[in-house]
């Protein structure tokens, strides 16, 4: 990807993980609602993603978009996810098509889009290494909150923009991203842990690979996993280095 | 269903078909944005479904909801489907849960939620009797327009409200409803034709049957069909009487 890569929500945690591994590899355009906390040598767009004109300005000329911006709170109220996550994602996708420059759209979906597969009769075994249940991205969403509904809707929006406008779309259902080590005393978080370096590597893969429309899970190669990473390996060449079991 | 049944979008075409077959069978509450065209002996609520308080008043005390209200135009712009179809459906579902009276939620989804399975290499064979391709409700949405995106989102919202609050949810992906006879010179419309009497019967089935969360297709038993009605038969006892081939 020689053209600039637009990273929305750049100031958030996922944005930090991506930039910590890939800052020098791409020509970045960063977008966030707030100005950058640290001085940045990258192009920086201060914009609300619900403002189409501001979004278009940031999108036009980019070759790929990593779309992280939105209300990240699992407990976010409906009005916020309706506006920031659903309407905001539509805005970015529409701008991507209108600009005619964007070829790849990489969407930060979430484990919360499928959180209600974690039924009482499956847990806590689901979070333990011996358990063989796997979600692999071919299952329907079963959101565990309205934030998860908004992420599932983003996946559907991507499907439409892929089918109609031939945009390559990768949806990454991100697990539990923490820096340094997996969450402690939290089996679920350990099962879906994503290390910073695996996160950066996975989004790098999404910028490099060829694909049509994909839904994959974004986690490290954890012994406890109940999300399959087979599809991420096969289509994107994802080769994670970390495993929450190494920190036991 | 002895408790009142709330029918939203009652003044539209699907509402007319349902009432033409079932008006005397249930204790109806009708809701529409506009006052009724004809005098009605049923309770009638003039309300915009994006107005939560007005919606709650209509929902509270109902035992079931048939939710048809929304912008019905396949070419409807994003802002309209975002508000009327996505936000409106959330409002009704939230009111259903808040009221504690509603047990069943029957959602008018649409063939447009899966319109992009009709690819160039499948059509027009897809619309002809010899073709064996079938969509059966286990496939991911592939909307052909933003209206279809909004319907797919309604299905996801229903999934969340079912999983979290134990509401029975039936999503009916309605085909091409026309009164009297199937569309002429329109193979696609003949393939997904739904007669008025089959429409009324199908929604009657949805009010009577026991189910958790279902996605079914709402079409007559057309020789040309590419939507399976097996699930509607099995779970809901749907027994359609019409077939667009009888009008050739």
Detailed description of the structure:
2 copies of one chain form a homodimer. With 248 residues, chain A is an alpha/beta fold. The first copy, chain A, has a single domain, classed as Rossmann fold (3-Layer(aba) Sandwich). In chain A, 34% of the residues lie in helices and 17% in strands. Chain A is built from 7 helices and 9 strands. Chain A has helices at residues 13-22, 52-59, 78-99, 146-165, 187-191, 196-208, 230-236; strands spanning 5-8, 28-32, 43-46, 64-67, 104-110, 168-174, 176-177, 193-194, 213-218. In chain A, the strands form 2 sheets. The first copy, chain A, has a 7-stranded parallel sheet with strand order 3-2-1-4-5-6-9, sandwiched between helices. A two-stranded parallel ribbon of chain A has the order 7-8. The longest helix of chain A has 22 residues, at 78-99. The mean pLDDT of chain A is 97. The A-B interface holds A 78, 82, 86-87, 90, 94, 116, 140-146, 148-149, 152-153, 156-157, 159-160, 163-164 and B 78, 82, 86-87, 90, 94, 116, 140-146, 148-149, 152-153, 156-157, 159-160, 163-164.
Looking at this protein, list some descriptive labels.
homodimer, 248 residues, alpha/beta, Rossmann fold, seven-stranded parallel beta sheet, two-stranded parallel sheet, 7 helices, 9 strands, 34% helix, 17% strand, globular
């Amino acid at each position: 990807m020689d053209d600039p890569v637009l990273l929305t929500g750049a100031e958030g945690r996922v944005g930090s993980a991506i930039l910590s591994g890939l800052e020098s590899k791409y020509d970045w355009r960063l977008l966030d609602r707030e100005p950058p906390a640290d001085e940045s040598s990258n192009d920086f767009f201060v914009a609300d993603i619900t403002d189409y004109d501001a979004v278009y300005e940031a999108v036009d000329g980019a070759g790929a978009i990593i779309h992280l911006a939105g209300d990240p709170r699992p407990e976010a109220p409906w009005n916020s996810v309706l506006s920031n996550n659903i309407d905001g994602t539509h805005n970015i996708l529409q701008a991507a098509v209108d600009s005619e420059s964007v070829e790849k759209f990489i969407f930060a979906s979430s484990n919360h889009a499928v959180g209600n597969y974690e039924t009482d009769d499956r847990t806590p075994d689901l979070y333990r290494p011996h358990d063989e249940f796997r979600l692999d991205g071919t299952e329907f969403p079963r959101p565990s909150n309205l934030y998860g509904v908004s992420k599932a809707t983003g996946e559907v929006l991507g499907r439409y923009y892929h089918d109609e406008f031939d945009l390559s779309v990768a949806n990454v259902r991100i697990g539990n991203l923490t820096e340094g080590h997996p969450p402690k005393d939290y089996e679920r978080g350990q099962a879906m842990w994503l290390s910073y370096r695996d996160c950066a590597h996975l989004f790098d893969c999404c910028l490099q690979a060829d694909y049509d429309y994909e839904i994959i899970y974004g986690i490290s190669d954890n012994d406890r996993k109940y999300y399959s990473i087979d599809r991420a390996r096969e289509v994107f060449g994802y080769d994670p280095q970390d495993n929450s079991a190494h920190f036991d």
